[in-house]
Design goal:
391 residues; alpha/beta; 2 domains; seven-stranded mixed sheet; three-stranded antiparallel sheet; 15% strand; globular
Length: 391
């Protein structure tokens, strides 16, 4: 270290940067989606303390709005302080105890992440298999339960890596509950954009991220647990390995007591409150229908160009369209061209589908006709640059 103290460093030696000016992108990738202007305005609201009576009222409102969006009456419904991965880890790390067995899917990238989190929580992981690009078959889930008798079953409702929507959710939950297991649903790319009914479909725990169909910056991530799941959490013999995500401690802050646990990300809570108000104003079922209609136009336009969807129609995920990369087309070159020439973001494949698909989001505020028209026109140009004519 220099002999000089920090106080003696000349001002001209301090780092100098200009004002923040990121490019103005059209976000049509797997997330984040474009943020609604009202949400951005909400984030400029002055801060109050995280135990201020006015903020406690905001917390109550956010919880009620989350219940509406999840379609649940669960008392234990909160925004976890962190990204969607934090709500994911809160769900798995609290429900899975050392010695528990968790059944996870192999049909996408995020089933693998479930497995990793369950193992870190001290659980034993077993798998129910399905190819990447296909949903789980209830018969295979039943067979996996008969073989392994897991304590917890996790599935991905909307698999961001493959563009596949998991049908038959009530069938899956019925199988799990017949074996006295708990069900965790990954709703990161479906909440607020694709039909999801936590109570009616008998899901014990569901988590999501705010930056997808809710069109909210990441930082406060939805999580809901029913009484049965929360009883398991509160009756654990061994504490969860994460203090920060320990739901028995967070219960003191988000429950009736409102006792200090950590400093909540106040601006992010403002943001998700406004994002959820937009959901309620539009109406959740109308919002599901908008995503279906706008994404349907996107899908039809891509197919008119001669492109193929990765998922069959019956498993197609409106909020995340996985599009097969044609032979002799460089997927990365198309992505780079759209970004450099048009400030338009789409993404490549993950895991087993890396290089084979493009992932095109149609979520939240990004799910607008003008965005779809822009994407189709620019995609046609990018493909022409590659010599693809769709014939």
């Amino acid at each position: 270290m220099s002999d000089r103290s920090l106080e003696t460093v000349a001002d001209d030696e301090a780092p100098q940067f200009g004002e923040l000016s990121p490019p103005n992108r059209t976000l049509m990738g797997p997330g984040p989606s474009e943020v609604h202007p009202r949400v951005l305005r909400g984030m400029s609201t002055p801060l109050v303390g995280h135990l201020d009576p006015s903020f406690v009222e905001i917390m109550n409102e956010v919880q009620e709005l989350l219940r509406y969006t999840f379609r649940t009456d669960n008392q234990w419904t909160i925004p976890v302080s962190g990204t969607g991965s934090a709500s994911m880890e809160a769900a798995i790390g609290n429900l899975v105890e050392p010695g528990d067995t968790m059944l996870v899917p192999t049909n996408g990238y995020f089933g693998g992440r479930m497995a990793s989190m369950a193992e870190r929580a001290g659980g034993e992981v077993v798998e129910v298999d399905a190819p990447w690009g296909e949903p789980l078959d209830p018969a295979d889930v039943e067979a996996a339960f008969d073989e392994h008798q897991p304590d917890v079953f996790g599935f991905v409702h909307a698999e961001t890596s493959t563009g596949v929507l998991q049908p038959h959710v009530p069938e899956l939950t019925d199988i799990a509950h017949a074996h006295d297991a708990y069900v965790i649903a990954d709703c990161v790319t479906s909440l607020g954009g694709v039909e999801m009914r936590v109570d009616e479909w008998d899901v014990d725990v569901a988590y999501s991220g705010p930056q997808k169909c809710l069109s909210c910056p990441p930082g406060a991530s939805p999580l809901t647990l029913n009484d049965r799941a929360m009883d398991k959490v509160l009756d654990r013999e061994e504490q969860p390995r994460s203090w920060y995500l320990d739901l028995s401690l967070l219960e003191g802050y988000w429950g009736d007591e409102r006792a200090y646990h950590h400093t909540a990300p106040i601006t992010n809570v403002y943001a998700i409150r406004e994002a959820l108000r937009l959901v309620a104003e539009e109406g959740i079922e109308s919002r599901w229908e908008r995503h279906l209609d706008v994404a349907g136009d996107l899908k039809a336009g891509l197919q008119d160009m001669g492109l193929e969807m990765n998922a069959p129609d019956e498993y197609w995920l409106p909020s995340l369209n996985a599009v097969r990369v044609p032979d002799a087309v460089d997927d990365a070159a198309v992505i780079d061209y759209l970004l450099e020439e048009y400030d338009l973001e789409i993404a490549s494949g993950l895991g087993d589908l890396a290089g084979d698909i493009w992932r095109i989001g149609c979520m939240g505020y990004s799910a607008r006709p003008q965005n779809v028209e822009f994407l189709l026109a620019t995609m046609e140009d990018a493909l022409a640059e590659q010599g693809f004519d769709g014939a």
